[in-house]
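User: Round two. Same drill as before: sequence, then structure, for each protein.

Assistant: Same drill it is. First protein:
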Amino acid sequence: NITPVKAEVENEEITSTLDHLVQILQGSPPPWLRKALQQDQKHNFEAAFDDEFEETEEEVLV
């Protein structure tokens, strides 16, 4: 998913906007962004976990 970032002023350079975003991500992001980042991490973890078990199937005789 891509979310557009609106510049605070019309003549603002993209580098300053990106620098500001990096500072936010390194510090304390707003709750909505923190939640979105956590959901993405959870999804990535679950996908890796599922892949691991799909590859380790074995036959068990009882």
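Second protein:
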Amino acid sequence: MYSFVKKYLGVFVSVLTVILFVGCGEKSKKDSVASPDSVKEQTANSIVLLNVDGKQAISEDDFNKHLAQMLQANPYFRGASAESLPKELKRKFFDELVKQELIIAWANKNNVDADAEFQKNYEELKKLVRRSLLVQAYEKKLFEGVDVTDADIKNHFDKNKDKFVKDQGGVLVEGVEFTNDADALLFLNKVSVKESDFKKMAKLSFEKSYKSFNRVAEKQSAEYSVSIPKEIKEKVLALTKYPSIIKVAVNGKVWVIHAFDKKDTVYFDLNEIKDQLKEMLKMNKFRDILNENVDKLRKEFTLDINEDYFKEAVSQMPGAGATSEEQEIGQVVEEEIPAEKPAAA
């Protein structure tokens, strides 16, 4: 638990500033000065966690809402709930909220919201928020109408079973590199007497030439990322008996290879990943439906686009005579503007 805390504490705090200013920054002076009756009512329904100058600033409900907002916005905590977080993380988050409340209290006291620049920025922000909420409302309506049946899920699973790998299996591989075949053959004959002592004998006599390739499989995953010459990989996977000790020539050198502990690939059952598949298929369907509806909107409304503004950009789009550097820039721009998932109901 504490390793989790240490690993993510920095990430946890780094996202707070933006989230908290959006979540807390809308409190006006009027909002901060609550009537005694309203404070009593809120206190009765929710524990008060912070008062500033005797006025309620953060209740338990407020805290949980801000916490839920942070979790939803931060991919590092995707799938986590407020209840699942350790107290240390919650307290760290609360300390950041307290900082914000102190700043807001100062701003209210000094009438910062009356400043012309503040008002200008505030109005611009309201426009952006309104625009975002309108788009989200449209997408949310479409998303809620997307239906993914059990038959859809099973059909996709059956067509892609080989992609849903739980454990890639494979063979453990280790070896010693020799400069000539004679020395390699000598070691092979010696170590073949007791295959289980391969590593011990190899490191005892040829420690600098010994190498472990970890587990080798047909489809190598990032988990087993140690590079292995293709000649060795092909020979090892073609074996019909394990453990085995063989010679393999690679780029003028000779390897004595020990292949052992063969494990079959293990695949997920449908029930193990059904929920994830449903979410993925629903999102795929949603994107198609969204594009179809946007095409309909193009017919409903008249668009007048200033194409002259984009002529130079279009002529330099990737695949249209652009340089390799320009193509890379185009790819980065595409990656920086991912499709947004509609807000949850």
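The first strand starts at residue 48 and ends at 52.

User: Perfect.
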